[in-house]
Amino acid sequence: MSRQRDFLGPYRLARLIRGGSTADVWEAIEENTNDRYALKILKQTSMDDKGELAALKHEYNIAKDLSSPRIIKVREMRTEAGVLFLAMELFSELNMKQALRRGPDSLAFMLDKIVEQAAEGLYYMHTKNYIHLDIKPDNFLVSRDGTVKLIDFTISEKKKTGLSKIFYSSKVARGTRSYMAPEQIRRKVCDERTDIYAFGCVLYELCTGKPPYTGDTPNDLLNRHLSSSIPSPIAQNPNVTKDFANLVKSMMAKKPEDRLQLPGQQNKIVPTMWEFLKVFRTIEIFNKRPRKPEISVFDHNVGIKGADDMFIKPSVSSDEPEEEKPRKRKPKKTTEEGDKE
């Protein structure tokens, strides 16, 4: 590579992490500090696409308002040599979806920590009056010690209030079909409860290895979200506790106001991620705690010691990040008190 191709402003491109249809993600080293970042770089074919340019700028405008250890940090957006890109915190680990391809046992032994951290990230986002709208396993990065970070704010938006809520209209239903709430499919106003529904679908998949609904066609899948009965994760995994199964099912209620209404509650609550955390911290996910697999999902191929080694490494650079050492896992909280970012 020439210096022009190897650098974007002060960032030296070290290796390609992953490629996409409209953007690539590179690990890069800031020349002055030697700090490592992830750069989300629009492909040349997308640079003239006003929609893709607007989407990247939209993602930056939301991400810059979010500051939480549970959410990926976006440092800056800039243009160099006609190329628009985001510079983000480097957290080069698998996402939940990639881990689940090895089966639910790959994460089950530390699932309580994973779920709690994922919920805390989403709760924090809601406290800033943002709705994610694309909650799915792919958008949670998870490390080998169970640290979780929420990513991808491409279709996220401010919570609708006042006149913007009254006169809201949308021509297109946006989201990922396997995790879309009924109101999202019907192009109605979405709020925190929409993300709660999607997070319920994610929890179902985390403890069973499968999404709650499947369909023969895209429309069939959407119709199942609208009208099919809510499945219990116990049917797929009998080790799931009844308390956790009831919590997951309550999150997937068809009507937003019915979400997180659990059996035995004396009064109806306002569904929020904080209410979810209060309940989750008092129950167990599994009847019998799963064992840690002998072969980690990060170590399942010869020569691969972590997610970093699964990425494409250009031969022109020998710069590799140091492997993050696993940290001791903290005991599960049993109180209703938690960190409010």
From TrEMBL:
Residues 11-273 form the Protein kinase domain. Its EC number is 2.7.11.1. It comes from the Bacteria. It is an enzyme of class 2 (transferase). Residues 309-341 are annotated as: Disordered. Keywords: Kinase, Transferase. InterPro entries: Kinase-like_dom_sf, Prot_kinase_dom, Ser/Thr_kinase_AS. GO terms for molecular function: ATP binding; protein serine/threonine kinase activity. Gene3D superfamilies: Phosphorylase Kinase, domain 1, Transferase(Phosphotransferase) domain 1. PROSITE patterns: PROTEIN_KINASE_DOM, PROTEIN_KINASE_ST. PANTHER family: SERINE/THREONINE-PROTEIN KINASE PLK. This is Serine/threonine-protein kinase PknH. It comes from Stieleria marina. The lineage of its organism: Bacteria, Pseudomonadati, Planctomycetota, Planctomycetia, Pirellulales.
